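Records of this kind hold a single protein each, on a pair of labelled lines. With that in mind, the following record should read easily:
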Amino acid sequence: MEDIRNVRLAPLKDSNYLKPFRFLYTQNGTPKSWDLLGVHDSVGIIIYNITRKVLVLVKQFRPAVYYSSVHPDNRKDTIDTDKYPGSLGTTLELCAGIVDKNKSLLEIAREEALEECGYDIPADKMEEIATCRSGVGEQSALFTVFFCEVTDDMKTGAGGGIENELIEIVEKTIPEMEEMMNSPGPLASPPGFLYAIMWFLHHKAGKYKN
């Protein structure tokens, strides 16, 4: 996963995922503008395995995280991967996915749990927690969080994603997550993940410690 080579930067001519545009408006009589991105909404799933008492998370390479880890002076057409190894772009996240199908959020969440983590989770075991917004400065997409308990018997596949996805399943105990959340950082995880873990530690973790 972290063996990243041949990193190059190129103009973005077209995208199925990002739609840049300029937002023009008048506020209190003053003309203003703001540059925005149109992106898909997404779902994330907090998965707790009660058989082994671990949170089931995913690790993957995120180009945006990698790029932001490269000093601006070194953001040339080609980036030196010896100086900037792929590990700089590796994140710890919830099992998650974008909303790009004509399906309900629950159906998409169940699909992602199966594809990324290998768990076939019945719909009635999925609890919708909250919906928040991400990237309010440039896109403000909705991020809906689900929670579910799973057992080893519910794992029917290897996970790891589909097609050319490269996703590693990571299991963390509650004490390990508490230690991570109390660390000074910087944490290589998105705000939605941090919110979801804080919710889990506040609302659910106590019952699993007994």
